[in-house]
Amino acid sequence: MCRTNLRIFIGSCIVCFGAGILLSFLLPGYFLAFIEAAVVIAAGVLLLGKRN
Question: How far is CA 6 from CA 19, 20, 21, 29, 44, in A?
């Protein structure tokens, strides 16, 4: 079961990486910076929410 979860995690990371590279060619830089900032803030909120 753990190996299956690891495969799903690695697969989703690869898909996200590929989507990021594709978007870097299609979208302007300021929009990509906005998306990156939003993702970092959302990840921080989710991590802080797990502690409580």
Answer: 20, 21, 23, 32, 22
